[in-house]
Amino acid sequence: MITDQVINHITEWLKSYAVNANVNGFIIGISGGIDSAVTSTLCAKTGLKVICLEMGIHQNEAEVNRGIEHINWLESNFPNVSHSSINLTNTFETIKNALPSGVDNHGLSMANTRARLRMTALYAVGQAEGLLVAGTGNKVEDFGVGFYTKYGDGGVDLSPIADLLKTEVYTIAKALDIVISIQTAAPTDGLWKDERTDEGQLGATYPELEWAMAYKGDGSDLSVRQEEVLQIYEQFHTANKHKMVPIPVCVIPEKFK
Q1: What's CA 215's distance to the chain center, in Å?
Q2: Rounded CA gap, 53 and 115, in Å?
Q3: Confidence (pLDDT) at 122
Q4: Which of 9, 54, 76, 226 is the least buried, fewest Cβ under 10 Å from its Cβ?
Q5: Residue 190 confidence (pLDDT)
Q6: What is the pLDDT at residue 220?
């Protein structure tokens, strides 16, 4: 990968898209993770207006601190960047308490609800400010294992890093001089009260999943671990396929119309 050219290409793509859409710039949710850090920096490099939104919901303190450190770094380097902090904890608790009995105890449902609340906040502020919601998903998560929330962090206007593998995102982060605490932190979706990581939830590392995503062999030359990783990848890819394809539409035959 020719890193500097990739950075320039994405930056110009972002700027061109925003200008053609006649909007003021971009809004990005800042999580304290590598993907949102890289995406927000690329948006900042366009010179257009950028708002970084920090949206805590029972957030891990380390994630919050990394996010704030990144926002401070961005604002000190790019005068077009500003930020807002919204604490959505009480809003989340209100929704949780209003749901039917038992739903509030479903861990995955509540984790995804947190992501969907953040999406709602991003679009509310973004629309008021004339900004596009910039997605932070990478290629492995968006098109490989589907590791994102449908209509949550998957609800965006454009995806600047979705053609980059996770390892390539780290390469871009290093070139952009993203704060070290983010570059060295274990990736996490930040949707749980504990400190679980992305790779812990997936059962495989990102380099392993990237290998599985590209694998085209017949399986005869695989090690035990490679077979396990390939199975993990296929299970996630199959289960989350509904996130990666257009919404099914029941087409009415012409003879019924």
Answers
A1: 24
A2: 13
A3: 98
A4: 76
A5: 62
A6: 82
**CA atoms of 152 and 116, how far apart (whole Å):** 4
CB 209 within 8 A of CB 144: yes
DSSP class of 158: B
Residue 195: what pLDDT? Answer: 67
- Of 43, 91, 47, the closest CA to residue 70 belongs to 43
Nearest Cα neighbor of 242 from 138, 144, 146 is 146
Which pLDDT score, from 0 to 100, does residue 192 have? 64
Decide: 162 and 138 in contact? Cβ < 8 Å: yes
Crossing angle (nearest 10°) for helices 61-77 and 34-44: 20
232, 205, 195, 236 alpha-carbon torsion, rounded to 10°:
-20
Structure-token pair, residue 15: 């700027």
Query: What does the alpha-carbon distance between residue 205 and residue 50 come to, in Å, rounded to a whole number?
Result: 32
**CATH classification (class only), 3-244:** alpha beta
Polymer length in residues for the chain: 257
**What residues does 132 pair with on adjacent strands?**
26
Q: Where are the domains of the chain?
A: 3-244
192: left (phi over 0), alpha (psi -120 to 50) or beta: beta
Burial of 224 from C-beta contacts in 10 A (0-12 / 13-18 / 19+):
exposed
